[in-house]
Amino acid sequence: MTVPMMFDNPNIIVGENLSEFLCLGCEVGYFALEQLAYDIKQTIQSIMNPGPLDNDQAELLRLIREEFDLQPITQINYRFEVLQRTYIPLLTFSKRYKKPS
User: Fold this and answer.
1) Is 5 exposed, middle or buried (0-12, 13-18, 19+ CB in 10 A)?
2) Residue 49, phi then psi, degrees to nearest 5
3) What's the pTM?
4) How far apart, in whole angstroms, are the C-alpha atoms of residue 77 and residue 41?
5) Which span out of 3-7, 35-39, 83-87 was modeled with the highest average pLDDT?
6) What are the C-alpha distances in Å from 44 to residues 54, 74, 76, 91, 96?
7) pLDDT (tens digit, 9 = 90+) per residue, 38-95?
8) CA 86, 47, 15: angle at the middle one, nearest 5?
9) Which of 5, 71, 90, 98 gives a 20 to 30 Å CA spacing to 60?
10) What is the pLDDT of residue 20?
C-alpha cells in the first residue's frame, strides 16, 4: 500500500497476496488500513478490536468474508514485522521517482 502523503515512508506491505490483504480488512473495512501509514500501533489495535460499523458496511464485509472464506489475521504485530522485513527491501522505483527533500 502506498500513502503518498507520508513522504518519508509512503510504502507499507499489507499482505503477501490478495487473500492476506482481504483477511486484514475483513472486519474493519479497507479504507481504515490507510491509517497504518500514520499510526501503525493504534491501527493494529483497531484491527484486532474493531468498533461498531454501520449496517451497510457490516453487511458488505460479511458478504466478502463468506464469499472468499476469509478469517481475520491473528498475531498481526508479528506478521507486519515479517512482511516489512521481507518485502520492503525488494521495492524498486524508476529513476523518475525522487523522494521529497
Assistant:
1) exposed
2) -130, 70
3) 0.82
4) 8
5) 83-87
6) 20, 11, 7, 23, 33
7) 999 999 999 999 889 999 999 999 999 999 999 999 899 999 999 999 999 999 877 6
8) 25
9) 5
10) 96
Q: How many whole angstroms separate alpha carbon 68 and alpha carbon 51? A: 22
Contact between 40 and 80 (Cβ < 8 Å): yes
Q: Which residue has the cell 449496517?
A: 55
487473500: which residue's cell? 19
Domain ranges, ordered by start, for the chain: 18-83
- Residues 13-31, mean pLDDT to the nearest whole number: 95
